[in-house]
Each structure stands twice: as C-alpha cells, then as structure tokens.
C-alpha cells in the first residue's frame, strides 16, 4: 500500500467513516462468511483475496492506544475485520504492562475474559465482535489486569487461570505482590512459573477455607511464594483456641503427573501443601507456619508414585511430612511408592493431643501407606516423634514396607515409632539412622508375628534425665534383628538402670514383647554395659545377643543364645534352650532359670571371671514338674577368690522341686577352675540340695591346688583329668 492510500485509510478511521473489510482472522471471518454464502472456506479465501490489499484490516497499519480501556472505546463499527490494535499498557498508569497486540474479530462471539478476548465498551455478551489478543505460548497476569501491586486481583487472576487452562498456555508471574480475596485458582495441563519465591508472591487476603492455587492433571508450578493468610497465633494456647484459625490452603496438587518446584507455601490453617495425585514431584519446596489440628507442612493423601526431594517443613502444629489416606476413602486405597530424599522437618509444636484432641506432633508420618522410603531425611525439634511409619490398610501383596536410610531424628520425645496397624503386617528396613537428644530412640510396636524389622548401623543419644528412657522400646510381637548399634547417654543414672522395676535401660519392653529379638554388636560409647529389661508379659519366642557388653536384667524367652558377649549380670529365663558360647560372664551375678520345658542348657568355651566383683553364676530350677535338668559346661574357665567371695556357682531349686530326684544335674567337660585366693574348703558349687536331688558329673577338667571340692558332696578329684 502506498503512502497516499495509507493516509486515506487512517483519515477515514479517525473521521468516523465505515470501511467494510473482508477479514481472514482464522476461525472467525472466513468460515462464517463462507457458510453464509454456501462456499467452502478455501473458496471464500480465494474470493476474498481478489479484493485490493488496501481494503484488508490485516494489512492496514495498526492503531496505537495507551490502554485496554482506550481500545474498548474505539468505534468498532468503523474497524475493519482483522484490524490490528497495539496497546501500550493494560491501564493508563501501567505503561508497558499488560498491553500487547490485538486484532478486531468482527464476527467473534468468543466469551470475553478481560485478557485474550475483550469486548467493546458497552457491548453485550451476545453481541458480535471481540478484540482478540495475539499471543505466543505464555500468558502473564498483567494481560488480564493483575499488576502485582498488592491490590486485590482475584477476578483478573481467576480469568487468567481459566483462559490458560482452556487454551493450554503457560503462565508466567513476574516479580510482584499478587493479592487475591478468593481461592480456587485452578490450572490444568500447563506450566505456571514465577520470578522466584523471594520475588513473586501470591497471597490470600480472605478468611474462608479453600485452596488458593490448584494444580491439576499434567500441570506444574514453580518459582513463587503462596501465602494462605492464616490468622495470628493466640497469646496463650488453650483447648478452645488451638484449632481456631482462619485462612486457606496455599497449594493443592491433584490428579496425575503434577509437580511443584522452588515454591514456598506458608501461613495456613491446615496443611501448607496437599497432594492427592498419582505421579507427582515436589522439589525444593519449603513450607512454613502451618496451624490448627491438621497443621501439616506437606500432606500427601491417597497418592501413588511420588518423589519429594530437598523439601523443608518448618513451624507446624501437626506433622512436617505426611503420607496417609482419608478415612472415607475406599478400603483398597492407600498411599504407596513415595520417596522422601534430603528433606528437613523442623520446629513442631502445640499439637492437638496436648489440648484434648487426637493429633500428635512429628517430623514425618507414614500411615495407611506402603513402599515409602525416607533417605537422608532429618527431623528436628518436635514434641512427640521424629519419624513414624506404620501400616493400617493392606497393600496388594499383603504386607507394608518402609525403608529409612541415613536419617536423623533429634530433640524430640521418641526418635522413631515403627509399627504395624489394624492387623496388616509390616516390614521395616532401617540403616544408618540416628536418634539424638531423645528420651526413646526407636519404639518398635508390632502386634503380628509376620511383622519384621531389620536395622543396622543405628545410633542413639539419650537425654536420660527422666525416670523412663531407652534406645529401643519394644511391644507386641514380630521379628526384630538389629546390628551395629551404638548408644550414648547425655545424663546417666546407674541406680535407675539397676532397678528392675524401672523402664530405664538400653532395651525395654514395658508392656510385653512376645516376638523374636536378635541383637549384634551393641555398645555404649563409654564402654559401660548395655542393659536389657523385657518386663510385663514379655515371653519371647527367641532371643540372641552377640558381640556385646551387657547386663541382661530380665530376659524371658523360649530359646536364648549368647555369643561372644561379656555378660556382667542378669536374669535369663530359657524355657526351651539356652546356648552360651565364647562369652565372658562375671563381675555381677548372672542368673539363669531352668524350666520344665528346657531341653538344652549349655555353656561352651565361656570364661566365668568373678574376681573383680565377687559375683557368681546363679542357676535356678523353677519347674514344678518332676523332670531332670541337665546343664553342660564345655571348655569353660572359672576364676574367683573362693575364700573372700564364696562359691562360683549357686545351684538352687524352687520349693516344689527342691526334693525331686535329679532336679539339678551339672556336667563339666574340659573345664578349668582357678581359685585366685587362699586355699579354702569353700566349694566351687554351692547348693543346699544333695544327691539324688542334685548331682555333678564330669571329665577332663583341671583345677589349681587351692580348690578341694566342686561341691560339698563331690570331691574335686573325681572330675579332674589325670594330667
């Protein structure tokens, strides 16, 4: 078009003349006009192309206006279909923001949304004609009139969310303070991004509960702060106000394949971030200031196949990170295949259970879940628990599985609570985990024989100032195998540990444990012995201890195996079999009770050294049946100052079996007896029983010259080797 004709067209538009133009805006003019004349769109295009280019709005020079309002006031009756309009800014006062390039679609009835499709001033919704924004693949809030200046921009943001989702266009929030009085900004199938949590804030200004931002199927969000506007904390927390908060949930992820990255979610009256999705990712997400009965950092419910990596939950009144199901969810529903990696939960407080309700405070809580892994995760400064992992609903294969690796729980009551629930067995695998600044390190509560916990390279640092404290607190049943354990007490009370009635020890079962317990290489940092107290209704199916220095204060089990241990003292009840091998027993008084069902009771290559403390081995037949009790000593070494401290072994029987023939029989083979003091007539074995109630047999044994008798009724020479 030459300059003369362009000037004529502009003069006509400015002067109010009407110019009828055949537009070719895709999807609008050509199709509609073709249908009106009975032509195909291709024929219409060819026909329209015969017009002089000077008559086309597409080729006419764009009209320049300074705001959307000014564009709406253009006399649309004089605009050619396809006429371009260049807008400097959405508002007159926001030059450079929200403007853009528009085209007039004279026959469009596309719903006006204030951003992509804008009606002329005063036009009804049914009237033809829209200013259609020319966009690429990304929208911004300013395109809909949301400037990020701190004023309420809910209507504009709601229109933005709908338009972006409907047209599958990404959304970018520039730096700014985007306030909204409403909730429910839902995005589906698109990417939503900001300029970074320190620069872009989307905050709620209302008080009704809802979800500020919803991310649905295939959508992602990153690079901003979402604020739920929770009401202020009370001056004093009470049962009346611990859950009396207003505000909204900052972020809600739902559906399939959703993600949140580099996000801060803060100030919520419930969870700061909720996930109900299959296939989700949370990366570098930080939650802060969650309040109320369900004040969680990140709440993952009825979800599958998720990754939570490098996320933080701080300042919450329930739990930092949760996987669970809703109570009303179908019975088959549970949360599974979820990994937490390099996450931090810190500063949990004011849980509802402290005000008469039911919710505890913890760093991490997995319930009604399966195949949940915590790797290199930390929980710090919570009221009740660091980590909780339990079943509740039955997975497809029938058993829930939880894995904890390289985790740390510190400054809480219980470091780890690991259990089964609602008759669903569980398998816990725990490696290289620590509990520090706790009263109880690992609470293991399994009710089912089929449940199992395997742990190794575990450490505890116990506070120790309370009447109750333990590295491992056991309850129920199941199988527990622990190896490479280290224990430190910040404050240690030896008197409490020595008292059998206290739950103050390395391993405690106060309410009763009836499963299998196997411990290996368990040590204290200060080299004092660990203590094991299995109290209440405890009756283990099997107990074993290896490579450890211990006091077995009370251990009742069907079978007991001790290998490569130093047992200073204890009370061991072996109902079926006792096997003690390569152990040192002494200093205190190890007591071993024999029962009617005890089939095997053997000490193999053990060292009984009672010289330091003057203790003794105490064997007690408590059975009320008439059956022979045979105790074997093979290749053992006994040392004690008999003159000063008395016999090395005390053989006793309960009143009901004291006079029963052969109720106690000891046999020694290849053993050595050393009296470290002066010669004495004190026997090695002290017993008030006499044959036939008690008897001693043996061969190939050795003694030093200061020992005269093994028992009052058994001269030592009868049992010694000829050499």
UniProtKB/TrEMBL annotation:
Residues 291-445 form the Right handed beta helix domain. InterPro entries: Beta_helix, Pectin_lyas_fold, Pectin_lyase_fold/virulence. Residues 43-54 have a biased composition (Basic and acidic residues). Transmembrane segments: none annotated. Residues 30-61, 679-698 are annotated as: Disordered. It comes from the Bacteria. This is Right handed beta helix domain-containing protein. The lineage of its organism: Bacteria, Pseudomonadati, Pseudomonadota, Gammaproteobacteria, Oceanospirillales.
